[in-house]
Write a structure and sequence with these properties.
- It is built from 22 helices and two strands.
- The chain is mostly helical.
- Strands 1-2 form a two-stranded parallel sheet.
- Helix 16 (301-329) runs antiparallel to helix 17.
């Protein structure tokens, strides 16, 4: 049977249908604080993906710097393997930072992850080459990647949680879309710098010192992001939950992994499925395909980099528009349409990319990018809505990082290995199709969350007049009394 007293204490704000909801029961969001929160979290995500963009676009060069001479394909595989190592430790970071974020607040942990990400990325710039110190070079690179992965384990879950908890119910999709806007800006920044270096420096200069320049930029970027995050206030949803716990004189419940799986297992599986299709598409398009075009299709490295960079620039306004559309039409239609399109378009798009003709390559990339935009614009508001306030950071961090580690971050390495073994250049298409099928199945099991409060939180509005409008409308979506059985 359902224990509402226990549920209220464990899961946050609760109003039964027969209880009157007043204006003061609703969260009225300060718009200036909301905009600062979005900017600070988006910058942190940009910092994370600046590193990913740099590493992905310079993977061939890093293979030559840090690994013994040999086949270019083998060197690239070794470089991508080191890239993937950082993802293997991400769930550990999620297990550490997630519970800390639920216990001590989102703001403090997000500041800590920012420091660690910036420091680890910055340190790569000072690692000597394999020619200088031998096997110690790739070991040091791997250690830096492990620290990056560990800190990143607490970044996305916390950032998505923070923005979702700060946003109003009606505009959560739009506000969440700026998180991935920051991701793409960071990725574009990293890719652009690498492309400029590749275009302007000789091969000798790029190998000797040019590859270090992008990693050096991480230092000042990290300090800027840290300053912005330290100036933030705690999210209204978490603050309201903390206040309610103190008022009822209860300690915040400590959720271990076992408790999360037992109580929220179905929601965790849904999150893993959504993150899978989201990140397989992301890493395939933005991380692997540039190297695929160079090492497998023998396409000009510089032309390939500029092609993908153009696609990413065009994705920026589409991402914000997608956030608005997810608020207007719902998250499920966006994700379902993109997953179905992935199944149908993957083979034609990879064939277009493999044609070697610039226009066809651009069309193939752009079609895949539009599918990706449907994910990037709606996932930051969809994923946090799966969980209750007291466990949102923990649950999202664990589900997100387990899925990314097993399926997303390993996509470049797994795809490159499969192509090497099968000699089938259509492997990327088949990989995307499988992910699309999983996305369709998962999103059909997820309820629509557009316009609804976050689980365990009171309705969030932008003003008292909007609060009165919501209450006057007697909209059943404004109160979420669905609680798990305990």
């Amino acid at each position: 049977m359902r224990n509402t007293s226990l549920s209220r204490r464990h899961f946050g704000w609760f109003k039964s249908r027969d209880q009157k909801v007043a204006v003061d029961d609703l969260t009225i969001v300060d718009q200036s604080l909301l905009h600062r929160a979005v900017a600070a979290t988006a910058l942190g995500n940009a910092m994370e993906w600046f590193d990913f963009g740099v590493y992905s676009y310079i993977a061939v060069t890093l293979g030559k710097v840090f690994f013994p001479a040999g086949s270019p394909v083998v060197q690239t595989l070794a470089s991508l393997a080191t890239f993937a190592v950082g993802f293997l430790i991400r769930p550990v970071g999620g297990l550490v930072f997630g519970p800390l974020g639920d216990k001590f607040g989102r703001k403090r942990i997000l500041a800590l992850t920012m420091i660690m990400m910036a420091a680890s990325t910055f340190s790569i710039a000072f690692i000597p080459s394999y020619a200088s110190i031998g096997i110690a070079a790739p070991i040091l690179l791997m250690l830096a990647r492990l620290l990056q992965g560990f800190s990143t384990g607490g970044e996305y879950g916390g950032a998505a949680t923070f923005i979702a908890e700060y946003s109003t119910d009606r505009r959560r999709g739009f506000m969440g879309s700026w998180l991935e806007f920051g991701t793409m800006v960071g990725y574009i920044g990293g890719a652009c710098i690498v492309t400029l270096l590749t275009s302007t420096l000789s091969s000798e200069s790029l190998l000797s010192w040019g590859w270090r320049v992008p990693f050096l930029i991480a230092g000042p970027l990290g300090l800027m992001g840290l300053y912005m995050r330290l100036k933030l206030e705690e999210s209204p949803a978490f603050q309201a939950y903390s206040d309610s716990v103190e008022h009822e004189e209860h300690e915040k419940p400590a959720y271990g992994l076992g408790s999360l799986i037992r109580i929220h297992g179905r929601q965790l599986l849904k999150a893993v499925g959504l993150v899978l299709v989201f990140n397989v598409t992301d890493y395939m398009l933005l991380s692997y395909l540039p190297s695929y075009m160079t090492s497998v299709l023998n396409y000009s490295e510089t032309r390939g980099l500029w092609m993908v960079l153009l696609v990413m620039v065009l994705m920026l306004p589409c991402n914000v528009l997608g956030g608005l559309m997810s608020d207007r039409f719902g998250r499920k239609p966006m994700i379902l349409t993109a997953s179905l399109a992935m199944v149908v378009l993957a083979i034609p798009c990879i064939k277009l990319i493999g044609s070697g003709m610039d226009l066809e390559i651009f069309i193939g990339f752009m079609l895949l990018a539009l599918c990706l935009v449907a994910y990037t614009s709606s996932m930051p508001s969809t994923l946090p809505a799966l969980f209750y306030t007291p466990v949102r950071y923990s649950a999202l961090s664990i589900a997100f990082n387990v899925s990314v580690s097993l399926f997303g971050g390993t996509t470049p390495l797994a795809t490159a290995w499969l192509i090497e073994k099968t000699h089938n250049t259509m492997v990327p298409a088949y990989y995307l199709m499988v992910a699309g099928v999983i996305g369709v199945i998962t999103i059909l099991c997820v309820r629509e969350t557009a316009g609804r409060p976050l689980r365990g939180s009171p309705p969030a509005v932008g003003s008292r007049s909007e609060a009165r409008e919501v209450l006057a409308g007697d909209d059943p979506l404004t109160v979420d009394s669905t609680l798990p059985r305990i």
